Structure formats: structure tokens, C-alpha cells
Amino acid sequence: MSTTPAALKELRDAYDDRPAAIRRRRAAGAPVVGCVGADVPVELVTAAGALPVRLAGDPARDRAAADRYLGTGLDPAARSILAGLLSGEPELDLLLISNDCAASLRLFYTVRELRRLGVEPSLPRTHLVDVLHLPHRTTTRYNRVRLAETKELLERWSGRRIGESELAKAVRQHDEARRRILALRRLRTADRPALRGEDALVAIGAGAVLTPEEHAALLDRLMLADAGLPRYDGPRLYLTGSAHDGPEVYRAIEAAGYLIVADDHDWGDALAGPLVGEPTLDALAERYQYRAPTAARSSVRVRADQTAATVERSHPDLLVCYVRDRDEAPAWDFPAQRRAAGVPAVILEHRRYGELGEDALPIIADALRTARQNGETG
Amino acid sequence: MARRNKLLASSIEATRYQREWFAGLREAVAGGAPLALVNADAPQEIFRAMGIPYVVNQWWASVVAAKRRTGEYLRTLRENGYPDYSEQYSATSLASVFAEIPDPPWNGLPRPTIVLGDTTGDASRKVFDIWDEQDGIAYYPLESAAADTVPVNWWELMPDQWETVIGTARLDLMVAELEGLVRFLETTTGRVFRESRFREVMALINEQEEWNRRTRDLIARTRPVPLRVDDSISSVMVPQWHRGTVWARDAARRFHDEVAARVAAGEAACPGERLRLMWIGRGLWYDMDFYRYFEERHGAVFVWSMYLAIAADGYIRHGDDPMRALAARFAAFSDQLYRPPWSNEWYLKEARLHQVDGVVHLVGEDARSGWFITETLERAGIPVFELRVDNVDQRAYDLTTVRAAVDDWLTDRVAGRASKKPSPHTPSAP
């Protein structure tokens, strides 16, 4: 049995206790900007001299305080983020919320109104970053305006001008981290993967609380250790559907002997692409507008194309669509994804946050058995 | 359920007109005319100006729900692999593209060639994506932008100062979206967009909504109320879906005049009116008797729903540039109804204007900022009953339990409070 490589252990430590990583950063005197959603332009935050930390929910966290304000009809991951904010964990100097999904936008309206009414005075100063995603030039033009406003906001807040050199450095640092996330694919999609899905999720997600330089360095070390990493065997699954801001579902699937060789949500593989490239607001606007598709923002057709491409490069035996309760968009994608995948597919609906559900493993096993009988798996 | 007699001639006329229009529409589509299916909060004015027939998606869902047939359509969606628990209000119509149910309401929904909706919500745009997958149907998606900061009192500012209220970035984007829509429709339908016709449409709509504003104000200040909310829905909403026509403008005026005549004659919806209630949320289409069930026992009459009120406050946009004014109507339309601080502060303003004693607040699964609405009203001393059901999907609706709970709430929270208030205003002439 192989030991866990040191780099993966360090990534896991950061990932497993993300609030602790943020506390350490603040204790060292660095301002911390909480980011909700993957559409906050972290480059601008970094260029303003602050650490962008992406906030995650936690299925184990008591959501009652947040449910009071948001109701229970909203994705529990967003409700959990608000529960964390209401409890003051983590402490933030500023909160930027993106419009990356309906739940994030609802969270923004809720925090803004709670602050206006003075109901929860401990909530941090909060602003919206309204980046939109229809594939049109007019949308890019709008995003460009919003990013310029965010830049000005960060300059006023930090007292630091974000000049060309600061932006260029930040873009380069974040692109380097993204480049390495993209390179991780090779390890998890190999014939005998060196990374399980949960390992990849942790390695990618640790970047939520690390500087891009730290993250890139740890990913480098992990990939350099490739030859010494264990190799995994098992039925190969492509996990699509809701985003996973924690490892619980991956862990439950892989503990049963399956390997998640691909996913397509923005806490996982879809976080990385594309790179920004040019250090300009125009390039940033285009990067966030056209970043990798997700269930919340992308059309059914785009998601189906993404599914086909992901199957092509990861060779799964089964497509598993996980639909979290109150996160319904993936269920609308699924019929087209199934048609596009060219491999057997199952859907797991009404899943509780952070849980696979008792019926899931039998459903997966049945689908794989049927596929084998029909000669549909490799 | 026994059908109620309609109280208003304007309502009877609106229903007659709608049936005649729908029959004509079916004929036109059978003859090869394009047909658009558009969301309720989408800029139908463009279609009106270009003479492209359209059906409002949520109107159709309300027709189906009123006939209690929604479940059959949702079952069709499920049978075709789609969720039956998501976006039921917007998705009812989609089922028709797969298979029409037996003996459908109004002989069923004709197949559209164009569908229009914005990208608000993760799942709602997917419903339109599925339409887009069908042969001969194209979806034109509209961006849905949001603002970091907004002034609270939108209802005072919107008619003339919409640029300030909504912000230049959102308006620039929506104007670009609308310009694109016009080109898309010109290209796909061969119909022509004439600026002169568009100006007429926009002017007619402002006139229509000004009539609605007068009617709203009249109802708000008159005790006992001359009509209850379910009396007025057809009189308001059928013309709303036909806005931009002379018929719709005149229908709004006839509705106003009819209400004014009732007020002048001292006619009351509930002569023994003791409690004035507000209904917040979409209409409870499958149980319209709900709106008058509490009159006999409590003298409790529903005096307010969003349908007339949003017509009064939510549509009027003046300005020399009609396309930008139209963008201002829809760039933030749902913010007015659903997003704090606009929604909660507006509902409070309307509650006070209408002198309501209590509010029944429909909080569906998709509780859009419901806490703030309830909290704002309760803080102002207005009791709120939160009714947690879906407005079209009645599968989880228990009529007896719901009515008993509202009954108890009226007794325990509303009646006692109302009796301590100063004596009501006397009826006032228009």
C-alpha cells in the first residue's frame, strides 16, 4: 500500500480545514476577500494585495439561521455559505458575490438586505460582481463595465492602485495555477489513474484558500511525484450534475471501489479553463464569460457538447448525473447529456447535500452490470 | 367546484375577447403565421409592434391550472425524461411539444415557432433550451443583469427616472438585447419593425397602465372595497397580455369606469367588510374560491393582488427613446416583485395604501426573498400568514387544512388587531 504523497497531504490539510487556513492568513496581517462563486475575478483581488478565498458550504454546518432568511427552497450549498457568514466563520475583510448561479445571486440580495435593515450587523461589507454568460459581444461589453467597477471598488477599498504590472503579475500567477489544474487531468484519466476523483477534487479545491503561487507549487510537487503515486483500478465513472464543494459524495462513491475519472463542475475540473492570457480587463471579461460550462449557467446544448468531449478524453464506463435537492438545473440537462455521452448513464435525483443516498450505489452497480451484459463497457 | 358568476362586465368582455383571440390565433398559425411563446416578464412589445402573434407562457399555465390539468402535463414531462418538480409554472407549456393531453384546455396550445425568455434562474432557461431542441422552434434568450446598489423607492422613480434607478450598464445591455431581438425577428419571420408603430405601441401601453393606476388608487381608498381580487384578474390581465393595442387601452379604461361606477353607487364586494386582506404571490389558480371563502365568517375580503398593482406601478416608462424605455420596463421587472429591497418595501407601501389588516403570502418552494416580505410587513404591524404551496401544482395542496389554518389566523391574529384600529374610512367618490 502506498503512502499519501506529501504534496497531496498538504493540499488536503488546506482543503479539509479551509476556515483555519483563512484564520492563519488574517493573523499574518493579510486582508482576506471572501468570494462566492467561480465568477469573481480573483486576479483583481490578488492585484489589490488581498487573498481571494472562495467560500464553501459544509453539509455538517447547522443551516437553521440561514434558512430563516433564505428559506429552504434554495440550493443548500448556498444556504450553508450564509450560515457560515452569519456565524462569523470565516472572518472576512470584504465579500464579493458573483452571479454564477441563481443561489449565489439570491445570497447576495439576502446579505445586502440584512445589512441594510441592520438585522445582522456582523456581516461583512458585500458587493456583487455581475458577470454574465450568454455568448454574445454585448454581454462581453457589459461584463467589461462590471469588471472595471470591481477594479475601482477594490482600489478604493484597499487604497492601492491596480496598475498594469500588478494586474499582469496576478493574471500570470492565477493562470499558472490553472495550467496545473488542467495538467492534473492526465493523472486521473490515465488507464490506471494515479489520482482518484476525491484526490483531484481536494487538489483543485485547496486553491480556494491558498495563494495562486502556493497552489501551483503544491500541484507541481504532486505531479512530479507521479511515478511514485499508487495506481487505481475500478469501474470508471464520469460525475456530472451539481457542483460539489466538499468531498463527501466522491468519498462515498470511491469507497465502493469506483473511480471518478472526470467531472464537470467548477469546484472540480471545470474551474480551470480557459486561461486569461493577456493582462487586460477585456481578457478577464472574456475569460469569465466563456469559462468552462457548468449546469447552472450553460445551455443544455453546450452541456451536452461538454459531456461528449469529456467522455472522449476520460473513457468512463458510466455517466452519473448527481442532482442535489433544490439544485434542479442538472436534471434538465440530463436527457441531452445521455444522448451525447455514448456510454450508459444514470441520474440520481433529490440528493441531500453532501450525501450520496442509500439507493445510489445499487443504481450504479445495476447500470454497470446491464452495460456489461450488453457489451457497452470497456 | 361551482363556477362563480362574474361580477364585472369588463371581466366578461375580457374573457370573451381572449377566447375569440385564441381561436383567431389558432387559425392564423394553421395558416402558416409565426407564433411566439413568451414569458410574462419579457418584452412582448416588440412582437406587438411587428404584428407577430404571441402567447404568454404563464397565462397558458394559469389556464391549465384553473382547469386542474397541470398534473397531466407534468406527467408528460416526466415521461420524456424531464423533472416534474422544477419550474412547473414555466414548464407546463413545454409538455405540449411532446404530446398533447386528451381533451386539452382551449383545444391545446398551438406549436410555437419562437420562444422568448430571459436567463434568470438556472433551471428556467433550460426549459427554453428544450424548446430550442425541437424542430422548427428557435429560442431567443435575453440576458438578465443585476445591480450592486439600488434606490429603494423604485415605484416613485421608475416612470421618469428609470435611467437612475436601473443604471446605464443594465440598460445599455438590454437595449442591445432588444436590438438583437428585432433583427432576429426580422430575419426569421420576414416581418418589419417600424419605429412609428413601435412609438404608438409604447404610448398606448403608458395610457393603459395609467388607467390601471387610477383604478388601483380608487380601490385602495374605498371602503368597503368595490371588488375583490378574483373579480378583477381577467379585467386586468387579459388587457395586459394584449397591451399595445387600442382594445387593451380601452379595456383598461372600461374597467376603471366600471369600478368608479360601483364606488359611486356604493356597491361592495362584501357588504359586511370587516377585514381587508392582501394576497402576495402568484394566483392560486386551482382554488380561486379561496379568495372569497373567508367573507361570510370573517367579513374578510381580498382587496389586493399584484396583478393590478404591478400594472399600476411596474410598467409606465416615459421617455423620448422608446427602445430604451422598453429596456427600462424589463431590465429589472422581476426585481420589482421579488428582490429586496424593492419587493418588500413596495408590498408595504401597497399594504398601507390599501389599508389592509392582514396579508396571505404565498411562499412556494422557490421562496424568492419571502422572509424579507413577511418581516417588513410584520415589523410594520401587519400580520402575515405564509401559505407554503405551489400556485399551479396542486399535488401537495390540502384545501381543508389550508382553509382551517387561515381561518384560525384570521381569528387569532387579524380580527382582534383590526377591531382596535380607528373606524374605517367612509366610501369616497372617484
Overall helicity of chain A: 40-55%
Helix content, binned percent of chain B: 40-55%
* Helix-strand category of chain A: alpha/beta
Q: In CATH, what is the class of one domain in chain A? A: Alpha Beta
Give the total of beta strands of chain A.
8
Cα-atom radius of gyration of chain B: 21 Å
Q: What is the second-level CATH architecture of one domain in chain A? A: 3-Layer(aba) Sandwich
**What gross morphology of chain B would you assign?**
globular
Low-confidence stretches of chain A: none
**What oligomeric arrangement do these chains adopt?**
heterodimer
Low-confidence stretches of chain B: 423-430
Strand order of the largest sheet of chain A: 2-1-3-4
Number of helices of chain A: 15
Pfam family, one (chain A): HGD-D
Protein name (chain A): 2-hydroxyacyl-CoA dehydratase
Family (chain A): Belongs to the FldB/FldC dehydratase alpha/beta subunit family.
Organism (chain A): Actinoallomurus oryzae
Describe the structure.
- Chain B: This is 2-hydroxyacyl-CoA dehydratase.
- Chain B: Belongs to the FldB/FldC dehydratase alpha/beta subunit family.
- Chain B: InterPro entries: FldB/FldC_alpha/beta (IPR010327).
- Chain B: Pfam families: HGD-D.
- With 378 residues, chain A is an alpha/beta fold.
- Chain A is built from 15 helices and 8 strands.
- In chain A, the strands form 2 sheets. A 4-stranded parallel β-sheet of chain A has the order 2-1-3-4, sandwiched between helices. A 4-stranded parallel β-sheet of chain A has the order 6-5-7-8, with helices on both faces.
- The mean pLDDT of chain A is 95.
- Chain B is of the alpha/beta class and 430 residues long.
- Chain B has one domain (9-419).
- In chain B, 54% of the residues lie in helices and 8% in strands.
- Chain B has helices spanning 9-30, 45-50, 57-66, 70-79, 88-91, 95-98, 124-133, 154-166, 168-189, 195-221, 229-241, 246-264, 290-293, 295-298, 306-313, 322-330, 333-338, 342-353, 370-379, 399-419, and strands at 36-38, 54-56, 114-118, 138-142, 275-280, 300-304, 358-362, 384-387.
- In chain B, helix 2 links the parallel strand 1 and strand 2.
- The two termini of chain B are 35 Å apart.
- The relative contact order of chain B is 0.13.
- Residues 423-430 of chain B have low confidence and may be disordered.
- The chains are: A alpha/beta (378), B alpha/beta (430).
- At the A-B interface, helix 4, helix 6, helix 7 and helix 14 of A face helix 7, helix 9 and helix 19 of B.
